[in-house]
Each structure stands twice: as structure tokens, then as C-alpha cells.
Design goal:
The chain has about 80 residues and is mostly helical. The chain is built from five helices and two strands. It has helices spanning about 10-20, 20-30, 35-40, 50-60, 65, and strands spanning about 5-10, 65-70. Strands 1-2 form a two-stranded antiparallel sheet. The longest helix is centred in the last third of the chain and has 11 residues, at about 50-60. It is elongated and about 45 Å long.
Length: about 80
């Protein structure tokens, strides 16, 4: 984990909750399957706000449902 924390993409979790397949999301959000898989596996280094907006629109969710900030562990002095 980074010393500043990290951003976790919860797309896989949202897809399971919604019951939507990756293929259907890809079609509706105009995304490639590889791109969806990378988002599901948190293999994204730079977030594209347009892609995030399309995902939120198709899944009818808020950005905070899709992204989570995990702070770094606190050091004890």
C-alpha cells in the first residue's frame, strides 16, 4: 500500500450487486471487455473521468459507490 493510501475501484462488486454482465456493461457504457476487466481487477493507473461517468450512468450509482479511498495505516510512535 502506498504511504498516502490508495483508491479502490469497486466495479466488480457493483456488477455482482446489479446482476449486470460485463458484456452488457461494455455495450451500454461503450467500453472494451479488457478495459472492464482492468477496472474490476484494480489494474488502472490513471482514472478516466469520462469512463467513470459512463459506468455510474449505466449502473445508476454514485461515484462514491464505485471508488473508495483507503487511507494508509497509521504509524504508532
Amino acid at each position: 500500500m502506498d504511504e498516502y493510501g490508495k483508491i479502490v475501484i469497486k466495479l466488480d462488486e457493483l456488477l455482482k450487486k446489479s446482476g449486470m454482465s460485463k458484456n452488457k456493461l461494455g455495450h451500454k457504457a461503450e467500453m472494451q471487455r479488457t478495459q472492464i476487466n482492468n477496472y474490476c481487477k484494480n489494474n488502472i493507473t490513471r482514472l478516466d473521468t469520462d469512463v467513470l461517468a459512463r459506468i455510474c450512468s449505466v449502473l445508476d450509482c454514485k461515484i462514491e459507490d464505485l471508488l473508495e479511498f483507503v487511507p494508509p495505516p497509521k504509524e504508532e510512535n
